[in-house]
Amino acid sequence: MCQTRSEQVQVNATFDVDEVGLIVISGSSSATVALTCQRCTEEFELELEVSFTFSPVKDVEAEAELPSYYDAIELDENGEVNLLELVEDEFLLAIPLIPRHSIKDCQSPADSVWGKLPEELEKPSPFDVLKKLK
Ligand SMILES: [Zn+2]
Predict the structure, then answer these.
(1) Band of residue 78 on the pLDDT scale cut at 50, 70, 90
(2) For the residues of 85-105, what is the DSSP string, one character each?
(3) Rounded to an integer, what distance in angstroms lies between the CA atom of residue 63 and that of residue 54?
(4) What is the pLDDT, as a whole number, of residue 74?
(5) Ligand 1 centroid to 35 CA: how many Å?
(6) C-alpha 97 to ligand 1 mean position (Å)
(7) Cα–Cα distance between 51 and 26 in angstroms, integer?
(8) 3-state helix/strand/coil string of 42-81
């Protein structure tokens, strides 16, 4: 349903140490993804932009002490972080649950109600039926 369209995902990240000695990895990233519109089923491209502020922690205790404005990331067995994987996760979170064109770009008529017929088409009015009998 989703694939990354651009060959290169730009990631700008800064590594820093804050005033209490925590390592902080902050930055932003943008990528264009191809999504399928859930209204008209046509493919469309969406530019996503995410920003992040991570702080690596070595265990759950360190994670519990981490200020809430940092996102805790766990170090892998080599004591490293996989920044690309983390950024990928951020993108997955940024993708809308139900991807859709904006109304003006959508192939589907704007007045159709998704997944349900407009009421007036469901059944003819009883009065119209009576008129035909005359
Ligand atoms: Zn659409």
Answers:
(1) confident
(2) HHHHHHHHHHS-SS----GGG
(3) 11
(4) 87
(5) 10
(6) 15
(7) 8
(8) CEEEEEEEEEEEEEEECCHHHHHHCCCCCEEEECCCCCCC
pTM of the entire structure? Answer: 0.65
* pLDDT on residue 79: 83
Distance CA 23, CA 20 (A): 9
Residue 97 has pLDDT above 60, yes or no: yes
Q: What residues pack around ion ligand 1 (CB closer than 5 A)? A: 37, 39-40, 101, 106
Q: Where are the domains of the chain?
A: 2-108
Band of pLDDT at residue 112, cut at 50, 70 and 90: low
CA of 110 to the centre of ligand 1 (A): 9
Average model confidence (pLDDT) for the chain?
82
